[in-house]
Amino acid sequence: MARLPVRLRGLATIAVAGLVLACSSIPGAVAQPSAFDAWLEGVKRDAAAAGISETTIETALAGLAPIERVLELDRKQPEFTRTFWAYLDRAVSARRIERGRRMLAKHRALLERVRGKYNVQPRYLVAFWGLESDFGRYTGGYSVIGALATLAYDERRGAFFRAQLIDALRILDQGHIALANMQGSWAGAMGQLQFMPSTFTSYAVDFDGDGRRDIWTDLPDVFASAAHYLSSIGWRGDEIWGREVRLPAGFDWELARLKMRKPIMEWRRLGVRRADGSELPRADISGAIVLPAGHKGPAFLIYGNFDKIMNWNRSLLYAIAIGHLSDRIAGRSPLLAARPAQEKPLSRAQVEEMQSLLVDLGFDPGAPDGVVGSKTRDALRAFQRQAKMAPDGYPTPELLAGLRQVATARSKTN
């Protein structure tokens, strides 16, 4: 989703203690009358300095109090990591594929008009629409102003959300949406695209010329705003996102990195083929090999548009899901890679243990936090190389067992 550069994560302490339930216009809110109200006065001054009318400021911020549930969700971390196949099954379900095909056919004329202006293929717009809001079925049930005020008042990422709050007030002031209808996610992402307010102010468009940029209910504005965003960051209308591929025996797993770009003709020379075994196309384009489920799972050759999907949402699994959903909506085949009989996701505690073991063994995964990021993957690759394992950087229960074994053996020799 085109909302935050990274997923919100990590535990943080609530900045002001003693939250108590209070009467408020926001259900489930908790009040801190003196401190929060004083803080809100500063927001009002900032909004006025930004040119937002006093009427909008007073109306939108009246009766606000921090929403405890928003703070809980901000700090909530999943207990288990999501495996590739589990993620794909949910994101690219049979129901979503079928509904996406119906939506593509139903709105084809509008989508082609949008393509004519922004050069973004309709199937991708429908895929984003499907993953972000299930084709407009669910856009969030939180007051955007209330959620943003809560997160802006909290110290953890206060400056970012304070700026988002000012942008949200600007959107109201410009008349694009009524206050009562400005609903979104707990993090303030809005509408059928789940745009953050700053993304809205930069990229939302009034495609049907009714004087409002409406990403909540107006499909011309929904599709055109998504296309405007993608085209503005460099989307190529004459390229696909990527494709599933088959890797040759003896493939160098060190080459399977998101930033390891090579011309497609070089991948051909190295023996990479389409998933069905046929030759890769002869094209003047570069790509990278990614292994979202490790070297035993499917492999993908991804191109420049894949990077643009990741600009929208910095998740590798999300980007593959958008690409694959767009393919399935267009009538293309399911993935050909064999599915494992069962997948065992690692818990956050197991990932944290894995990171601690890497530290103890002299590798650097960053601070153990239970989240698999790029530093953790690099550290895993380094350990795998040392242990003569396929260095794919993919965390598995088997890899954790190997780390434990090496750590135990080393402790006995010290």
Written account of the structure:
By secondary structure, the protein is α+β, with helices and mostly antiparallel strands. Among the domains are: 1-79 and 142-184, Orthogonal Bundle (Helicase, Ruva Protein, domain 3), CATH 1.10.8; 348-413, Muramoyl-pentapeptide Carboxypeptidase, domain 1. 47% of the residues lie in helices and 6% in strands. It is built from 17 helices and 9 strands. It has helices at residues 33-49, 54-61, 68-75, 84-91, 94-106, 108-118, 122-133, 144-153, 158-173, 197-203, 219-232, 264-269, 304-312, 316-329, 348-360, 374-386, 397-413; strands at residues 20-21, 30-31, 142-143, 183-184, 242-246, 262-263, 273-274, 286-290, 299-302. The strands form 3 sheets. It has a 5-stranded antiparallel β-sheet. Strands 1-2 form a two-stranded antiparallel sheet. β8 and β9 form a beta hairpin. α1 (33-49) packs antiparallel against α2 (54-61) and α13 (304-312) crosses α14 (316-329). It is globular. The N and C termini lie far apart (49 Å). Mean pLDDT is 91; it is low at 2-28.
